[in-house]
Amino acid sequence: MLTIILMLISVICYSVILGMYKPQAAYKNGMLFAVKLPEAAAGHEELKQVQASFNKQFLYASLWMGGALVPMLFLHDLSAFQVIYFFVWSAVLSVVMAMPFRKAFARTLALKREHEWFVGDKRVVLTDLRVAQHKNARSAPLWLFIFPFAMSVGLLWWSFRQDDQSYGVTACGIFLTALFFLVSLYMRKTRAKVYSMNTEINLVLNQAKRRALSYLWLWMAVAENVHVFLIFMLVNNETGNMEGAWLAIIVLFAAIPVGAIYAVYRKIQALERDMLEHDGKTVYTDDDEYWVNGFTYHNPHDKSVFVPKRIGMGGTVNTATVPGKIIKWGSFGLITAVVVGVSFMLIRSELTSPSLAVTQDDKVEIHYPMYSFDFSLADIKELTLVDAIPGATKTNGEATNQYARGHFRLKEAGKARLYVFKNNPPYIRIKLEGVTIYYNEKDSQQTKKLFESLQQAGQ
């Protein structure tokens, strides 16, 4: 299952990057490789050479990165290293696939300066005051976020009431709702874009864009809370024959927000294209110098935090502003911390095994990082040696193809703590009040000896 999930995510990331960079080789909306050019310059022979070079380099990069996915399949039995390989592959993908575009952007910009292919005024265009006054007139009211916040708080309260270890899952609802709220809030502070010399066109397009995006983020907050609820139901599902159905629903539901984002931005682009085609008063601005490598915006003269992207859909931050710097480096730090932390825990899990011992004061201690547990011998209701473990769903722990450790929910048996090497019977089953423990050693003979020592200690 882990291999399938990682491969699916990898293919999606690979496809998104292909769809983002490949179209930049075609002159569209007055730009080539994110450089603004007059239409008369688009067919210049030197630009054609840049396009041909980009297409060749991008093809090689695509083939190499696609082929680099194959080794991940052979790490099927080494889950920790498979995940780390996925992290490394993702990082390399983002760098390697961007290199042809960055080179093409630099060469195109150099040719533009050499031939003086400038369009419009080489300056920052400030928005019309009438546009600025009305830019938020039709955005979704922020108070509507009360509803997704209420959904996320209610789900978290429900999981606590059930005393369920999956409250970490439900807490994601509050985090995602807060994230979409902040995105919606900052979106309202972005500068209104000047599309045309016609003020009415500017007003209509800016209002339409902000309205569409404000309701998109509100809807996303609601949808992701429903998504978290579905994941919570899967985690707590104790009916084995329903697990496939829950997984299918969750995967399908995850595709809905992606489709919604794509549809909204396509609708905005279509509206812009339609209105400007009939207006004939389009305003072009030449601010290429503020676009580092074509996709990073750094303009100290512009106080907007968010601006529309030149490649792909959506917006990007102005890294010259204080909030932009915080978002950029904060995101980088957060991603780095998550990747390093997860990699460390995976390697530690791969190299560390649980240990069980009986102390002199008749206590049983199970030692394992983050999931250690102890109990009195007198608390044991039943001690048996079994050859199989019921189907289990992880609620807070580690589960790979080789082992399962931490908090789980067993089908028809409820809460459990597992410290087992999978498909390696026998297993020591210890029933306590409200929880069942399964434990084994990698060596089956060691498991049997440990079981006997527990029996003797309990007599």
UniProtKB/TrEMBL annotation:
The chain crosses the membrane at residues 6-21, 58-76, 82-101, 140-160, 166-187, 215-234, 246-265, 329-347. Pfam families: bPH_5, DUF5808. It comes from Paenibacillus cookii. Residues 300-323 form the DUF5808 domain. Keywords: Membrane, Transmembrane, Transmembrane helix. Residues 359-434 form the Bacterial Pleckstrin homology domain. It comes from the Bacteria. This is DUF5808 domain-containing protein. The keyword ATP-binding does not apply.
